[in-house]
Every structure is written in structure tokens, then in C-alpha cells.
Amino acid sequence: IRNTQPHFVRCIKPNPQNQPFADSLPGGGQGPGPPRRPLFDRPSVAQQLSYQGVLEAIRVARAGFPVRLKHRDFFAEFRCLGPRGLDLPRAADDDGNDPARRPASVVRQLVEHPPVLAL
Question: What is the pLDDT of residue 100?
Fold first, then answer.
């Protein structure tokens, strides 16, 4: 988690009572004694993670599927596999009028290059 760049925060309720510790519930003794035990409802947390798509995202990542990259980042990483002379237009030159020169089209040319398809 520390190596990621999150774009939003998902809130997970650890238990239906919204209490941090089991002994903070009414009737739960507090004071000196054994360490406080966190109140954590595993089935509820698993259900929330499933509904929010977190578990599926973990499965996809573990299966080795790539993350989404911007066209320019993808091209910079894999341009060595393409034909000579295949290059992305500079941002200043890319007015979007020529569909063959758009970054998505150039990346498609790279991916559909016969030697790349043979991989």
C-alpha cells in the first residue's frame, strides 16, 4: 500500500457497532487487565471489500494482468519492439486532426506490429 498512489479512499466499517474495541460495548469492562481486544467482524469486512471491487482488483493484479498506463508511458516503455521510425507526436504537434497520429493509434501500430504479435 505504501508504494501505491491512491486516488480516493474507501471506508470500511470494521463492525456493525462502530466501536474500536470489544470492551467498549455497553457492559464491556474497562480498566486495568488484559490488553483490549479489537472488535473486528471478518464476514462484514470481506463483504464490503467484495462489494467495492477491492477483492476482484487484487485477484486481477495477482493474476499478472497489467495496470492501465497512459499511451505515452506505454509507448516509452515498449517502443523498442516497434518498427524503426514509429514515434509519438510531440504534444505541441498533436492537434488531434490526424487520427493516424493520435497516441492511441500509434500505440495500436506498435502492438499490431507483426514481430510483436508473434510474441
Answer: 55
CA end-to-end distance (rounded Å), the chain: 32
- The list of the chain residues with pLDDT below 70 reads 1, 6-7, 24-33, 66-67, 89-101, 119
Amino acid at the residue 89: P
Q: Torsion angle of alpha carbons 98, 100, 103, 109, nearest 10°?
A: 180
pLDDT of residue 97: 58
Amino acid at the residue 55:
L
DSSP string, 4-63: S--SS-----SSTT--SBGGGSTT---SSSSPPPB---HHHHHHHHHHTTHHHHHHHHHT
Question: In the block, which residue shows the cell 510483436?
Answer: 116
* H or E stretch covering 110: helix 103-111
- CA dihedral over 89, 91, 93, 95, signed as positive or negative: positive
